[in-house]
Amino acid sequence: MHLNRLRIADLLLELRAPLPPAELGIEQMLGPFFCPVAGPAADVVLNWVEGDPSPPSQARLVYDPGEIWRMYAAGEGGAFHAHIRYPGGQHEAPAEALLTTDPAWSRVRLIERRPRAGGASLLSLGAGELVVRTRILFGRGIVLHACGIEDRGSALVFVGHSGAGKSTLARLWSAVVGAAPINDDRMAVRLFKGGARAYGLPWGGSAGLARNRRLVLRALFLLEQAAAHEAIPLARQAALPLLLARGFLPFWDRDLMARAVAVAEALLQNVPAYLLRWKLDPSVIQLIRSVG
């Protein structure tokens, strides 16, 4: 049995598997997030095995986003089963996995059927992301559909739906002295005493931009394309529905949703939020720096 640890958004994940990371094919995506095995107790213990990933016969479907995965509930105690399936290529079977977890998402089992030996485990795709974005809710955190920028020693997070300009912003900031993109599609934020921190995640957008960074969060910007630049301060009540609509939320469970809403409310009490209307032009950076 191989034992490895990852630190993602200050969550410690312990991976137990019969194969090393290289044979699981996860080093390219998750490599920058590996950390020493010795240390405090893990937040999540994840056991990986190869086998049949079919959902339990008695499981009931509780959430179907209509794309890559579905969530099932089965049995007593609030356990969940996420069935994940990525289509295969022309001559390759699909990659498939069943992620079974306790209600706190601290004990996880991933049963996986890879289409070929050496193929990347779904840990480096949807399975690993689902664990992180759910478990982080128990640590006053949330994962947002967002672009993150490191600017002069702290983080700016730009939250937006697909097409709002997150990747364009990341490209524009890459040319700015004293700044660097962290991720162009997903960012984690967590609350701590006195403020919040922003974290890069392994899962980026089409550009593959995903840096392992941990920074104080300076400001949140909710993106909206417009004919001219404008940064409008948002009160918490106005910002909350906009932020939640751009978060990765656990719609399959009432208690988890309550946690997500509470985290978002607390985040907006501690970090200034702005509605950023912009026209996909580099001159917006001066405006952003003037308010955030």
Write the layout of secondary structure elements.
Layout: E1 2-8, E2 11-17, H1 21-24, H2 27-30, E3 34-35, E4 44-50, E5 60-63, E6 69-73, E7 80-86, E8 95-101, E9 107-113, H3 126-135, E10 141-151, E11 154-159, H4 166-173, E12 179-183, E13 186-192, E14 195-200, E15 214-225, E16 230-233, H5 236-244, H6 254-270, E17 273-278, H7 284-291
Parallel strand pairs: 2-4, 4-9, 11-15, 15-17
Antiparallel strand pairs: 1-2, 1-3, 5-6, 6-7, 7-8, 8-9, 10-11, 10-12, 10-13, 13-14, 14-15, 16-17
Helix pairs in contact: 5-6
Terminal CA distance reads 48 Å
Report the structural category: alpha+beta
CATH structural fold name of the largest domain: Phosphoenolpyruvate Carboxykinase, domain 3
Q: Going across the biggest sheet, name each strand in turn.
A: 3-1-2-4-9-8-7-6-5
Number of strands: 17
Please summarize the sheet with the most strands. Answer: 9 strands, mixed
What does this structure look like?
This protein has 2 domains: 2-138, no CATH class; 140-291, Alpha-Beta Complex (Phosphoenolpyruvate Carboxykinase, domain 3). It is α+β, with helices and mostly antiparallel strands and 292 residues long. Helices cover 21% and strands 38% of the residues. The protein is globular, with a radius of gyration of 19 Å. The N and C termini lie far apart (48 Å). The strands form 2 sheets. It has a 9-stranded mixed sheet, with helices on one face. The chain contains 7 helices and 17 strands. It has helices at residues 21-24, 27-30, 126-135, 166-173, 236-244, 254-270, 284-291; strands spanning 2-8, 11-17, 34-35, 44-50, 60-63, 69-73, 80-86, 95-101, 107-113, 141-151, 154-159, 179-183, 186-192, 195-200, 214-225, 230-233, 273-278.
